[in-house]
């Protein structure tokens, strides 16, 4: 009598978002407010609404910039010397490992290539769990702004080792995805774009009264900067371009929206500028809509939330032709894309907008039309779909062994 062989058990895995358990690791989830952190919190909120279970592992501080979405488990960290507003995650401590094991995630998501994320990737690989890495900024480019450009290839090599140990990456724009492919970081790369809150960012938020309170006349054309005041946002290029504009006798006002450690440097460099400080929520929408052109010379963004927010407010954008902005701005249609660091060309693009109200109107309207393509729920579902794909692929490979 022959005995039939028992087929190997097929690993069970979730086939929809409801019931999915996600462990998210972030070096900075809510203690500083920036586009990347807000995107992660929006993602967690969306997953929770769809019935998923999410635990976030990140440094905690006594006074975070905004409340964390979901359950936040603190990891050991210390303040980075010279940039105390940021913290460096130290280790996947025994306490965190116990919490992680008890949570028993289906997928691990890492959002920055720091020490804790490296340990989380090793933890997941030992257990055969799928790993997704999201790319939020071009860390390797930061050293250009601190006289350490020689470190860039070293950092890029370290990042390559990290990202190749992950099963897949998500990048916020196709232009950034192509950079990652060119750098040989990984070859399974999906797009996790960014959305814009149209209840906050819209042309109707424009306020001449608010401008007047800042000392800006109704007939003055405002060149705006929006973002954290840190050197890696291209503050030097912004300042040099504004100098060129002034030398050409072009009448304008500069409005700076944001705060950061380089505030004093920037204020000394642009003494005639209006510094509105940090703005949030509806106040931020009002500030952006009250600009006449946004100038974003940064090359470190992987998407460019500020660019999209300005476009949603019908404000034309002058930006560096770099990752992020290249996927948003249609050159000479909704704004201008200029070679990074090309100060004279930036100044000329700004001059055209300052002196031509019809051009501002046409390009602003085209930008607003483009911004309608970015829905947060649809964008975040793309990440959820990637989780489910990776879980399914890992289960199939396990069954074939």
UniProtKB/TrEMBL annotation:
GO terms for molecular function: glycosyltransferase activity. Residues 34-199 form the Glycosyltransferase subfamily 4-like N-terminal domain. InterPro entries: Glyco_trans_4-like_N, Glycosyltransferase_grp1. Keywords: Transferase. The keyword Disulfide bond does not apply. It comes from the Bacteria. The keyword Thylakoid does not apply. This is Glycosyl transferase, group 1. The lineage of its organism: Bacteria, Pseudomonadati, Pseudomonadota, Alphaproteobacteria, Sphingomonadales.
